[in-house]
Amino acid sequence: MTLGKSDNVIVWFRRDLRLFDHAALYHALTASLHVTVVFIFDTEILAQLPRQDRRVAFIWHSLLQLRAELVTHGSDLVVRYGKAIDEIPRLAQERKVTAVYTNHDYEPAAIARDADVARQLAGLGIAFHSFKDQVIFEKDEILTQAGGMYSVFTPYKRNWLAKVSDTHLQSYPVQPYLLHLAKFTGPGLPSLSELGFDESDVDAFKPGMDGGEVVFEDFCKRITHYHQTRDFPAVKGPSYLSVHLRFGTVSIRELARTAWRIGGDGAETWLSELIWREFYQQILWHRPDVVEHAFKPEYDALPFPNNPDYYAAWCEGRTGYPIVDAAMRQLNQTGYMHNRLRMIAASFLVKDLLVDWRWGERYFAETLIDYDLASNNGGWQWAASTGCDAQPYFRIFNPVTQSRRFDKEGKFIRRYCPELAQLDNKVIHAPWLLGAAKAASCKIGKDYPLPIVEHATMRLAALALFKDARHTTRP
């Protein structure tokens, strides 16, 4: 897109809290002599969140760093608190800008918001420019030979890899143009308490651009072994970049480019995970109905019993299955859950407890610091067999088998279920089976709960539930 020079524009930051390799910022800086960076604490989003929310704290600390960097260039960060659909047009008028620049957001509510803002700006004679930034390929850039969306990952990945080039992975050279940042001094950021939130400890996630760089550099030292370590929650295997990807304190182009250039099994496996992220983004863009409905219509109204006591036990990490409980306690205590454990916990809720996947998806949405609608929805529907996965509904994880395979020595379980710490490695995965409590300090059924369901029984019930739905919906 070629844009004429203008005197005064603003760049609306959202999921892109960095001053490097930033599509909208680059286009604004190269098209204008005075660029103001803006962030809106959108009350339509904040009103739905608890007073202590790690995501808000992560954003706040990232903005603090972003502002400090802007100040070194003689500029500042404009922060507003209110509805974005009101604040952006108001701010555009106040600063007498000719255009507003931002990066695409693919969530249905965000698409509607941006369309509303664009309409209001157009009525004021102000342009609205939006750019691709948080993915390598978006919307309908990767299509089947028939011109439709992909509903299976493997052929999507094959097409993605065939299409990608150095041009797609090239950075936007923001730094040479930062002299075009508007020169002013602002009032600074409102405090978290002024925004209606309590401070949360997010130091472990290393907020901000500097934090993203530190986490990425650390992962690059381990990336060659990623394929061997990523599934084991007691091992430092994951990249831990998910929250930085979510809020754009890292660049997806830099991440994908690095994996592409390093090569090898570890880097290629990690690149596949980045492609999975884009696969779910294109699903959401083509099928926004998946936000509340099953991708496979025949499973949209499965008659789940939805036992509230089972659901509460799952949320609180007291199901009696150590790997599931450790996973949920990690989530509740830290705001993060290892990816392998997300699959195990999700499968257990849907296939063992027969609770609607939408209940679990909403709980993750409330608690995950790296919550992303497309990935969360896609992952839950994958685990629930209601999504676009090619595998049939009878894939059901056995929590004990998964535990023995991926936490063989019980190190992760002991970390989050300390009441089981004295059990030996063979017993800790299913402590109720061998009467382990008799000689241990932990009494099963008292200090740690007995299983609330029997896996083999519930597996058969889940199979019947899905099988009946398939027969009922057949024409």
Walk me through what this model shows:
By secondary structure, this protein is α/β, with parallel strands linked by helices. It has 20 helices and five strands. A five-stranded parallel sheet has the order 3-2-1-4-5, with helices on both faces. Helix 1 links the parallel strand 1 and strand 2. The longest helix is centred in the middle third of the chain and has 23 residues.
Topology:
Elements: E1 9-13, H1 23-31, E2 35-42, H2 43-46, H3 54-72, E3 77-82, H4 84-94, E4 99-103, H5 108-123, E5 127-131, H6 153-163, H7 166-169, H8 208-220, H9 226-229, H10 242-247, H11 252-262, H12 264-286, H13 308-316, H14 322-334, H15 339-352, H16 357-367, H17 373-384, H18 399-406, H19 411-416, H20 455-473
Parallel strand pairs: 1-2, 1-4, 2-3, 4-5
Helix pairs in contact: 4-5, 6-12, 11-12, 12-17, 14-15, 15-17, 16-17
Features:
5-stranded parallel β-sheet; 5 strands; about 475 residues; alpha/beta; single chain
Give the count of helical stretches. Answer: 20
What profile does the largest beta sheet have? Answer: 5 strands, parallel
Structural class: alpha/beta
Pick out the low-confidence regions. Answer: none
Secondary-structure element pattern, one letter each: EHEHHEHEHEHHHHHHHHHHHHHHH
What's this model, at a glance?
This protein has 475 residues and is an alpha/beta fold. The protein has helices spanning 23-31, 43-46, 54-72, 84-94, 108-123, 153-163, 166-169, 208-220, 226-229, 242-247, 252-262, 264-286, 308-316, 322-334, 339-352, 357-367, 373-384, 399-406, 411-416, 455-473; strands at 9-13, 35-42, 77-82, 99-103, 127-131.
